Amino acid sequence: MSMTTEPTTDVSDARVVEGSDGLLLEIDGQIVPNYDATFADFEEGEVVSGRVVRIDNDEVLVDIGYKSEGVIPNNELSIRKNVDPHDEVEMGEEVDALALRLLEEARSRIKKDLRRVLLLPPDLTRAHSGAGKITETLYRALAADHCDVHVIPTLGQHVPHTEADNRWMFGSIPNERIHAHDWIGGVKRVGTIPAERMRESTAGVANWEIPVDLNASLMNEAWDLIVNVGHVVPHEVLGFANHNKNYFIGLGGKETICTSHMAAATCGIGSWRPAGRTTSGRSRRARRAGSRPGSSTTGRT
How far, in Å, CA of 276 to CA of 247, rounded? Predict the structure, then answer.
């Protein structure tokens, strides 16, 4: 969301009018409204809520309670391309309601009440995406409906959140409802990608199997709904962040994370293609020097 602001009045010599709660100023003997006192401060990247006040063909105008409206381009309204803003939002709709549509859709699809729900947001390294605010919105809506809601930040091998980190990112969600992913001792083996499949997919560059270990709570406990929260963006190692990576890496075990990252690093992101396609020169050189990855960690995911 982008927004424009108007220049403010110079109030360096202003005096707050007594009894006005800061809403009136005296400047050069005149009483004037203190508009700045009615607006909350915000920073770039902060998630705010607002009401849709105009829908154009290429953007949506949102009243967010500041000095001017916020603008949401149509390419930020949906992960789908070339959407019609009129199909995505309605006049007067609260922007937070966009995050709640998925709950309505989920109920209509699974045809049952949501008694137990797991929310999977990224960790604080991707807090700029607004995923924390979205997660809090979903949690509050579900908890108000007497749903048993839990949150597992998909941190992969990152350092677990502290209670202060959770409060900063997820706001009012109780800390006891937010669980740290244990990528060493808290996973369950659910399958293996065979070495032969890896050789086919990487044109022989990666010749090892990839065990698929996932968070034990995710796999063992009963959930009516599991929600991946976050934006899909390029990733420096595995091609993209969130989407299925939220599961298989963010909630993956040590062997899954290490072997898959090693495969991507060996192949090069642009070279990991379906079997039968030509690999790059970098991949051919890597194939000649290829070896099975060891058990050491690969750092942050």
Answer: 28
Q: What is the CATH number of the domain that holds 59?
A: 2.40.50
Model confidence, pTM: 0.61
Give 183's contacts (C-beta < 8 A, 6+ positions apart).
Answer: 155, 156, 157, 252, 253, 254, 257
CA 52 to chain centre: 23
pLDDT surpassing 50 at residue 5: no
With 80 as the cut, is the pLDDT of residue 64 above it?
Answer: no
Count of C-beta atoms within a 10 Å radius of residue 128: 13
203, 293, 218: which is closest to 256 by C-alpha?
293
Q: Which amino acid is at 83?
A: V
Q: Which strands make up the sheet holding 70-73, listed edge to edge?
A: 2-3, 70-73, 59-63, 51-55
H or E stretch covering 119: strand 116-120
| Domain co-membership, 106 together with 39 | no
DSSP-derived letter for residue 35 is: G
**pLDDT tens for each residue of 31-52:** 877 766 655 565 655 556 677 7
